[in-house]
Structure formats: C-alpha cells, structure tokens
Amino acid sequence: MSKIITVGEIMMRLQPEGYKRIMQADSFDIVFGGGEANVAVSLAQYGEDVAFVTKLPSNALGDKCVRELKGWGVDTSKIVRGGNRIGIYFCEKGCSQRGSNVIYDRAGSAIAEVGEYDFDIDAMLDGAQWLHWTGITPAISDNMAKLTAKILKAAKQRGVRVSCDLNYRKKLWSKQKANEVMSELVKYVDVLISNEEDSKDVFGIEADGTDINAGVISAKGYESIGRQLMAKFPNIKYVAFTLRESVSASCNGWSAILMDGKKVYSSKKYMIDIVDRVGGGDSFGAGLIYSFINNMSAQDSIEFAVAASCLKHTVEGDFNIASVDEVKKLAGGDGSGRVQR
Fold first, then answer.
1. Which of 160, 256, 262, 327 is the most exposed place for a label (fewest CB within 10 A)?
2. Backbone angles phi, psi at 183, to 5 degrees
C-alpha cells in the first residue's frame, strides 16, 4: 500500500544527441517520462512511498519502462499490462533563441485505449493519503477522461487529498474541450497547480501585466487568477503558480507563488542556465506534495518546490534526480554551484 498515488501516461522519449535538430539526427537517445511518472520518481528520491499507475503493453518496451521506474524506487505493482503500444514523443531541445520542439506519436497507446474496468480503483487507493494527476491524463482519450472522473470521485469518498497540475496540451485537445472536461474534474481537487499559460488556455482566466513571449511576468496578475480560481472552485484549498521568465530557451527566471485564500506566499527567484526544461513543472509539483505531506509551512513549501524545480532544469531527461538535502541546501541559499568535495 503506497501513501501517494500518481496516475497517467508514461512515454518513451526519443531525442537527438545534444542540441541537434531532428533533421540532423542519425540516432536517438531513449529515456522515459510523463507528467505523473515524473512526479512519482521525484517523490521516490525524497524517500516517499509512491506508486505510479498506468497501462503498458506486455512487450519488451513495456518491460524496460517498468524496470526504469523500479530502478528509481517507484512502486510499479499497480501498473496494468496490455494494449498494443507505448506512447512515444520526440524531443528536440532548444537553445538560445530557438525553442524546444515536441512531436507526439502516442495515438493508440495502451492507456489511451484503457477499458472502464482495467484499473482496480479500490486496490489502487487502498491506504493512499494523496492522489496526483495532470490535465494531460483526461486529454489522452475520452475513455481516460471518464476513468479519471471515477478515480477522483473514489478518492474524495475515501478522504484522499488530491492535487492537479492543469498542464494544457494543445496537441492533445482543444481549449473548448479542456474547459468542458476540466471544469468538472477540478471540483475534486484540493491543490491546483498552474503556470503562466494554462489557466488562460483551460479556464480563460488571464493575468494582467504579463507577456510570456517577452518574458514579462506579473505576480500580482497571478494573485488575481488565484482568487478567481478559488471562487470558481471553492473546494480548492491551495493554488500554486510557477512563474517562468523566458529570456531565451537557455536562460529563464524561475519563481512561484502559493495562495491559501488568505495569504500569498512568494518564493525567491532563480536565474537558470537550462540543461533540460522538460519535467520542470512536474518537479515543482512533487516538491509541493512532499512539503505538504511533511507538514512544512506554506513559505517553506513554496521555497522547497521552486528549488526542486530549479535543480531539475539542470538534469538531463524527464526525471528530477535530486535528494531532499540537495533541495534544502539550494532553498537555503547555497546556489553557488561549487564542487562538493
């Protein structure tokens, strides 16, 4: 019985060596990743008892994926095997003024074609204290949207705390469909995580004084969004926003705010020289979940989550391979990057 459950799709990520473009590639490196799986791996590195739930094909690729998750300490016992394929995405890393690019090849994946009774929801939630999902999961297919709703309802009936990262993906569904589906699913959420774009794309709620293309972020504008979201969904106890100031694909300012309906908690800001930004938001979510489960103060929680995500931007692949001590050291002010001897 794991106390934290994450549910979603994990994919095989294929990327050219270094900063090559896909058109230049003669070979691709293989890693695995996906929103909820990334959160699970981060939490496992922090020593938490966490299980990832998905559906993977019964073939060598599915086996390799399960082995990878197990290797990072994630409970894979609730993963369902079956279906025809694992989803794939190609990731071309950006640099300087050239942004990163993602090409999906995930149609017909095992989890996209999941059946209504493929997951044993009672067994999944047995002993669970926290459930995490993202807006990517119901976007995968109508079947997965319906199953997500069943899981959330069951979680709330059992008193499980629920977190969600909005994570709008325009390559998976329209803004209209996202609004329709997520407006119902977010009714079961205690902790909502968003960024400078998703609240606008999903709910049409926009921050004043912000221009993401120019790298201009208004924290006050996001406080207004948070208040509107909490008014729209009174079940939400906390709203967190990551604030990314995109100077270029290689250099970002990174900070966040956390709101509890009464007070706004702002983190320090990091200027990051990026190695790999994919999974940055997931590492933030994992840091926030860890902080809440371990009863950290609201201010310490937002500082821990932002520091965790800052470190992820320096790590290749989707997963954040950082320890609690490393995160706390950075959150405490040691960001010198000096050699540790």
1. 262
2. -60, -30
User: Which residues contact residue 124 at a Cβ distance below 8 angstroms, ignoring those fewer than 6 apart?
Assistant: 5, 7, 51, 53, 78, 151
Least Cα distance to 36 among 4, 84, 73 occurs for 4
How far apart, in whole angstroms, are the C-alpha atoms of residue 35 and residue 11? 10
Segment 129-145 shows an average pLDDT of 96
Catalytic entry in 165, 282, 318, 334: 282
Q: What is the pLDDT of residues 176-225, one digit of tens each?
A: 999 999 999 999 999 999 987 899 999 999 866 555 554 556 677 888 89
Distant-in-sequence, close-in-space partners of 71: CB < 8 Å, separation ≥ 6: none
Residue tagged 């706390």 (tokens): 328
Cα dihedral 204, 209, 214, 215 in deg (nearest 10): -90
Those residues whose C-beta lies under 8 Å from the C-beta of residue 294, and which sit 6 or more positions away, are none
pTM of the model: 0.94
26 as an active site residue: the answer is no
Sequence-ordered alpha helix ranges (H) in the chain: 35-45, 60-71, 121-125, 136-139, 142-157, 175-185, 198-203, 219-232, 280-293, 298-312, 324-331
Tell me the Ramachandran region of residue 203: left when phi exceeds 0, alpha when psi lies from -120 to 50, beta otherwise.
alpha
Q: How far apart are CA 148 and CA 76, in angstroms?
A: 19
